[in-house]
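F.,

This is the one I mentioned.
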């Protein structure tokens, strides 16, 4: 699990800013210092384990016309990322 956490940390560092480290438990598109797509702003999502998993699997399916172009196919990687985000949030 220690390796998974390190991988998650690297993953967070490779995405747009460090905004991901504070998303768990928040409404989508709610970090004021980050520019979001109109689609994500309108989504009314709350970032939970379930919504983050769906987002990481296929952002376009969860929120059509969003600006994210990546996905994480590996379930263990998604779990590690979500666990990391949850830990960072303190929730």
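My design for it:
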């Amino acid at each position: 699990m220690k390796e998974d956490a390190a991988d998650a940390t690297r993953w967070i560092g490779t995405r747009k800013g460090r905004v991901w480290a504070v998303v768990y438990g928040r409404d989508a598109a709610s970090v004021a210092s980050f520019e979001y797509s109109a689609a994500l702003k309108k989504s009314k999502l709350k970032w939970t384990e379930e919504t983050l998993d769906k987002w990481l699997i296929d952002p376009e399916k969860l929120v059509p016309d969003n600006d994210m172009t990546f996905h994480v196919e590996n379930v263990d990687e998604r779990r590690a990322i979500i666990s990391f985000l949850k830990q960072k949030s303190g929730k």
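The mean pLDDT is 82.

Talk soon.
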